[in-house]
Amino acid sequence: MKTRTALLLLIYIGGFGAFAQPAWPKKADRTYLLDNFRRTRAEVNQETDRLTSAQWRFRETSGQWNVGQVLEHLTMWELITLSDARYALYLGPDPVLAAQCRSDSVVASFIYETNPHVSPDFTVPMGLTPDRNNLTMFNEKCDLLLRQIEQADGDFGQYVRAGKDGNHRTLAQLYIIQFGHADRHLRQIRRIKQHPDFPKQ
């Protein structure tokens, strides 16, 4: 596997502000994935580490998630990614199925689009976890993902989690979706914090 340093492009999304989006390589390798997981982990911590209880719980409207719920949701998906990746690694390389997967850039385009996504019912946060505990859980599961990437052997483009209707994902793509999902919700966190009624320190 060749080593590649992730490149970051700053782009502006109307209504959300600037955020870092990786430049997609032709093939996502271990270093590329680790760099982006570490980057998104650091950004989530930077945005939330010093929040007060009132800030953790602030909602733009009654029907929208607060920052705590956003992190609870991200942690749920970290658990799903850990499980899916573990299963793909358990099955071993599958070049035939890997050849049926879409490209990394197509997968990235889906997770980085600005259209609203609908969360499956099993990933809708309950909001019962107190404030900063959401960040603690997010960090713990992110560290598990980092270790999983560091310790996995082989070509991440050859391990596959089979999906319904041919919607297969390589191991690399499972990880791309996860850190892209964090980027997606970083936009949401920043939008919440920019609300004129967001509590002051």
Characterise the protein shown here.
Helices cover 52% and strands 8% of the residues. By secondary structure, it is mainly alpha-helical. A two-stranded antiparallel ribbon has the order 1-2. β1 (8-13) and β2 form a beta hairpin. Residues 1-20 have low confidence and may be disordered.
Radius of gyration: 17 Å
Straight-line distance between termini: 47 Å
Order of helices and strands: EEHHHHHHEEH
Mean pLDDT: 88
Based on secondary structure, the structural category is mainly alpha
**Main sheet: strands, sense, barrel:** 2 strands, antiparallel
The spatial strand order of the largest sheet comes to: 1-2
List unreliable stretches of 5+ residues.
1-20
- Global morphology: elongated
Strand content: 5-15%
Q: How many alpha or pi helices?
A: 7
Give the total of beta strands. Answer: 4
Binned, the helix content reads 40-55%
Draw up the topology in text.
Elements: E1 8-13, E2 17-22, H1 30-48, H2 53-57, H3 67-91, H4 95-98, H5 104-112, H6 133-151, E3 160-161, E4 169-170, H7 171-193
Antiparallel strand pairs: 1-2, 3-4
Helix pairs in contact: 1-6, 1-7, 3-6, 3-7, 5-7
How would you concisely characterize the structure shown here?
This protein is mainly alpha-helical and 201 residues long.
Keywords, separated by commas or semicolons:
7 helices; disordered N terminus; two-stranded antiparallel sheet; 8% strand; elongated; mainly alpha
